[in-house]
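Incident log, entry 3
Record: Beta-galactosidase (712 residues)
Problem: checksum mismatch between cached and fresh output.
Input:
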Amino acid sequence: MKRTQPAPLSVWRPINLDDFLLGVPHYPEHVDESYWQRDAERMKEAGFNAVRMGEFAWHIWEPFEGKFDFDLFDRAIEVLGKAGIKTILCTPTATPPRWLTMNYPEVLRVDRNGRRASHGSRQHCDTTSPVLRQHSRRITSAMAEHYKDNPHVIGWQTDNELNTTVSESFSDSAALAFRNYLRHRYQTINDLNFAWGGHFWATAYDNFDQVVLPFPMAPSYSSPGHVQDYHRFLAWATAAFQRDQVEILRATNPDWFIFHNLGNLQDIDFRAEFGQDLDFIGFDIYPMLYDEFRRTNGHAATQALQLDLCRSYSGNFLVPEQASGLGSQPSFTTMNPEPGEMRRMALSSVARGADGLMFFRWRPAHFGAEIYWMGIIDHDDVPRRRYQEAKQFASDIHKIKDRLLGTSVHMDVGIAGADFDNQEAHKTYPIGLPSPQDDGTLLHAHCYRRGIACGFVHPEDDLSRLKVFYVPHWVMWKPEWTPKLEAFVEAGGTLIVGAMTGTRDINNHIIREQAPGGALAKLCGVKVVEFGRLTAKNGDGLFQRMTPQAGLYDNPNRPAPSSAERIYALDFAGRRLEVEHLYEQIEIKPDVEILARWSNRFLEGEPAVTRRKVGKGEVIYVATYLTPDLVEALEEQVLSPRGVSPLLNDLPAGIEVTLRSSEDQKLLFVLNTLETPTMVRGLPSGFDLLSGRAISGEQELEAYGCLIISLD
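Fresh output:
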């Protein structure tokens, strides 16, 4: 397993390893040592080459302050190594031991209600605490030094799912670190007061020592600039905590690869120091868990969405935890994958950018807060269907990895994503509107169903590989992004810009000109005269997106507002489409063509969707938010004429199709996400790498069946 220097962050970046990491997270400390040899033999038989371990074992590595004990893991690593299984170690800082929190209670996290965390869970300590950071460096140094020459240890994971259980802290150390962060960012208190709008509600500060953390609703709303900077600070603090560990590991053994495994992606700026410090990023993938929480389009579509979002942050990635079975903590339990479905979900991860995958977990725990979180081996130590599917998946990977590594996921349609400031800016002042990601998800879901190659792309990435690029209401627009869009369009690309884009500056202030402002307005050829909010279908008016902590207008006796008022519609190529969320009244330049007009109320006859030809390409402006019907119309009138078409025509429901490619490889993944066999027609001529058979025309895919067709 050799590491090369990682390329700059980009959605198109492959992982910088020469082999596919394949295995499981493993917890030898959870079972008697008599299990270890049998575990290693079964892993080898399954075709695995690596395990990940140690992330929750600080209390074992250092049973009391200054006393280190590596014996248990030394022996476990040796047993695995003799079977050909390499080890990825984790810095164990997600669960500091009880002696640390007892001796140094100031390291404990404080929630928004002022409640200090207690020991007994995970992520109970505050990453802004200088005391915690000191101990984090100490345990990392001790582990790195001990294992620097161990041939079985090939890489490291920093911490575990940073910010997943909780990302905020309102501790004294967080307040102090926040003030210091602001001193570096703004230099003078006058600049901070300007950025936060200190003349509004008399919120100006006399000096940095007066700055407070933005406690929610205390008693009313904080400045959007204040809240934005707090979350910027949390992202900076998370990256700084991780960097302490990365610097130690790099200095100890530069041949080690280093990554982190992300859970819910809160308060982490992947494109800044956090991602730049790592060789690659890992994303933990639990399709049925996402679907339970989001209630979207089924777990297959939800998994595809999550994978495409993850890839936008870093390019190809590792999956350090891929769901293998039922997942559970005391408050929830997911659905259980049916026979064949675990393998299909793993292959979906590979199809959408995974260059390594580890099934969570080797065996389930018999104690603790995840006793029903199943693994590859069952509670009774018997390998059943999940083990057999993991073994089959490993066989699949060994058949394709030489062609797979070095490829990236092909996209014809890109949706602007992976920008921390825009994600947070929306949260500071949502005014009942969908987030940019929520809006872009409508286009993504449509493309997923149709089999159109689509994903999320940051505007700083290479856009020349795309045919269409959609910007979904990014309120903060950096001027340096516009020339990249101009070049993309001049060369023949289609740019689609959504309403409200470019309406705020970096401080969360409304710009002092007609939106979208600056060069972006010139590129689009439109200016916004007026905007107004519309009630969403089946929404409940003003209060539909107020957060639970708001409380300001909570009234259990308040009647539900009607959602039947003020229906706005537009005429798009002869189709009447009702719109939701927002309208914009726009004025257009003489060289701008009207594709759709508002068809009722005071806007009747005015432009709603416009086109401006620029060089070989075009810029489309959409003066509202997307709906499923509007996305369908955009495909017919904009995407299809620009050469955007499905990877397979007449794609049956439940069939997922993805293309991974490089200069000399094209791998078409065709995956059946259904529990019934499905006939797929119109397959291109090629060679199925899994079965070894030539493919052309039509093929019946068994329940959860998979084809990986080499098209070269």
